[in-house]
Amino acid sequence: MTDKLPHNLLALFAPRPPLPYAKPLDRDPVKRKGPTVTGVGQYVPLLKDYDPEYVPTETVEEKKKRKLAEKKKKAEEAIKKGLEEWDPNKDENVTGDPFKTLFVARMSFDITEKDLRREFEMYGPIENIRIVKRKDDGKPRGYAFVEFEREKDMKAAYKDADGVKLLGRRILVDVERGRTVKGWRPRRLGGGLGGTRIGGPEQNQKYSGREGSYAIHTSHPPPVSSHDRDHRSHSRGGTSGGYGYSSSSNGSRYGSRHGGYGSSYDRDRDYRRRSGRSRSRSPGRYRDDRYGSKGRDRRR
């Protein structure tokens, strides 16, 4: 049909000229020759003469284990050295009768000796108060020792003052164990009590007070003076030791509940919290006169 078209239209259907020849930029793949690849047989003899100075690279896991072992060894050496130097009976700062001394911990750093005297002299006359401070800068370390003139006053404070809030923090009270418990060691030397730093959040103690923390860290029973050992009451089929700890039927001086707490301690503690302190002076009036608007807070 195109032969019937005029010449001006046939020019539109004319084929294009062939592409000009261009020299290839690379060699023909068929004619290419690459590098000669040889085996590893020539390097086998080198394996017999292994480099003795070669130090293998330490992995991340091995590095962590090595550092952990070094820290553990260093801590054990420090504890061993500290135990050789630690003797509470020869401490110049420790004075007074240990069975009349109350240990007060978890205090606010702003608490003064006047605040502690105002809080604890309601249990009885106080002989001495010592707030432990750092040697380098003189700042308080958060715990103190309160020595009473009478042992029964210390027992009353031991039972009733645990968990009292002072200046926004709930304190913990305990007997002095450094001079009364044989083989006792402080926390910095691998001993101590308390359950706030055992492990993870599911293991640590999340409530204030000493109750329930003794059986976790130590097998030492609370100390009992010679006066309490000689004066035991035979009631309810058992004997009663000092500081509110009752004896079991197997001859032990201390009860098994909470690492040494007897049932008499819990009954007396609950009774005191329900009905208040049973003393000759009025607790409410005495508290209002001495504390003003601050008072002793057990509710929060």
From TrEMBL:
Species this protein is from: Rhizophagus irregularis
Any single GO BP term: mRNA splicing, via spliceosome
Ranges of Basic residues composition bias in the record: 274-284
InterPro entries (alphabetical): Nucleotide-bd_a/b_plait_sf, RBD_domain_sf, RRM_dom, snRNP70_RRM, U1_U11-U12_snRNP_70-35kDa, U1snRNP70_N
Compositionally biased residues, Gly residues: 189-198
Bias type Low complexity, positions: 245-254
Gene Ontology terms: cellular component: nuclear speck; precatalytic spliceosome; U1 snRNP; U2-type prespliceosome
Composition bias, Basic and acidic residues: 285-300
A Pfam family annotated for this UniProt entry: U1snRNP70_N
Residues in coiled coil: 58-85
Region (Disordered): 14-38, 184-300
Location within or outside the cell: Nucleus speckle; Nucleus, Nucleoplasm
GO MF annotations in UniProt: mRNA binding; U1 snRNA binding
Protein's UniProt name: RNA-binding domain-containing protein
Positions of the RRM domain: 100-178
Keywords: Coiled coil, mRNA processing, Nucleus, Ribonucleoprotein, RNA-binding
